[in-house]
Please model this.
Amino acid sequence: METKIYRTDQINQAAALLRQGELVAFPTETVYGLGANALLPESVKRVFTVKGRPSDNPLIVHVSDFSMTKEFVESYHPLTEKIVKNFWPGPLTLIFSIKAGSLSTVVTGGLSTAAFRMPDNKKTLSLIEKTGAPLVGPSANTSGKPSPTTAMHVFHDLKGKIAGILDDGATQIGVESTVLDLSGEVPTILRPGAVTKEKLEEVLGIEVPLDKHLVKESETPKAPGMKYKHYSPDVSVLMIKPGDWGKAIAWADTNGKKVGLLATPKIADSYPSADRFVFEDDSIEAATRGLFSGLRALDEANQADIIFAEVFPEDHLGLAYMNRLKKAAAQKYFGEK
Model:
């Protein structure tokens, strides 16, 4: 199969493919999604096949307007209107209890809930509108590997497996959306992202708990990205705490291991001999934007025996960054057994 790159003036062609049941990757402000018409179960099944993803994982349903959710949702949490008004379109996925039979179990993973998001990307909102149906959109990569933040990342992983990719350059945020569960009484974060716990609490005026449960392989997750290990390159990753860089580099030298460095300029400049992916600046925003790109670049360079990655405090956006990095590193810090 030829995988075609679509431009802005070709969105109608991409939408026609989706209506026909083909798969088309699309851009969002977070990462690129692997799009299939959410109302065509056979197309959705192909998403799992193409990604090599377990079919019990639920998928996020992407809509172009909040009104599109009404066909599926059984009931809305009392805070839904305030949440949607403040955070949609944007990097926030909402989980609702849905009407029986309104979505295929292929989409929901057999659960009585479903996840919905309105992405903040004009091209993709137009694509959904022109398709005339919501789109499922897990990250457009091989399952378990770093998520794609450019069209070329998607092309690298899925060339010849999908019909097309709608290109809109590099994503702005770089990690997947926050997932907020609204199917119970208390809104609960199942996956941290750019809409932070602090932002939600400020708008809602209540405490919003974070579910830190890591789903085992035998369990069905309620939302994507809840597995213990995820986002992993082929090369092993170790997280390095601020005071451990010198010891970690010395350990690698002693053991003859070539290091790939994933770090901010202030850290990377201290170790110029390492194969490096340096974030744009020292901010958590730059680190989050560059995390998946850096893991991919160091992995594909095939130069490093191990990747040393910089850690950040686990608050605000740092919580989302560390959530992904911990899974990429299988929870392993340098110096810990």
User: Anything to note?
Assistant: The longest strand covers residues 92-97. The chain has two domains: 2-202, 234-327. The chain is about 30% helix and 15% strand.
